[in-house]
Design brief:
By secondary structure, this protein is an alpha+beta fold. 45% of the residues lie in helices and 10% in strands. It contains 9 helices and 6 strands. The model is unreliable at 143-171 and 182-210 (pLDDT under 50).
Length: 210
Amino acid sequence: MAMSYGSIYVASVALGARDEHTLRVFLEAESYDGPALIIAYSHCIAHGIEMSLGMRDQKAAVESGQWLLYRYDPRRAADGGNPLQLDSPAPRKKVREYFDLEGRFKMLRRGHPADSETIFEEAQHEADARYALFTQLATPGLPIKIGSALMNLTTTYLGLKLRTPLVPSAIAAERKARQPETHGRRGCRGRGAAFPVRGANPCRSLGTGA
């Protein structure tokens, strides 16, 4: 969500998986002239783990794709690059292997074996889809596909729709492609942006026009 603004430094880290990556993120966030958000994996005793092995669990979460490492730096977009950089390698473990390290999931398997299998399969599917999506979003030279992929994610996974794609360079491309079906400054009094329209006048929904 924060990345959709295009002006916020956003990163996801896990110290137990890659400590040098975590350090780099903090240095970049500190040097960024604007708001910065760091999302850090934090293991917890409530997960049903031996706390002295917390770093092992963090590493397993990243290696299974359950937790992704990435950086979204708007400064790269200003230089003509893709602001999103995926730092996670391709998953080399199954999500189930990560789950098996934690007591909370072992309890689920013992208490509800059939349901746990369904949940584990769905979790693996979501992890695979998430990694594939972020791989596409972080690929240079695919602005329209990047924007479309984000819209699909926010609709089907988060239940939200964003007016602009994740990568700022995709905004102009998508607006140009949808030019015949957009309302600009004339349609929305006092609004400078053009909004994609699919069978409805966005001005009416915003209360700024008839």
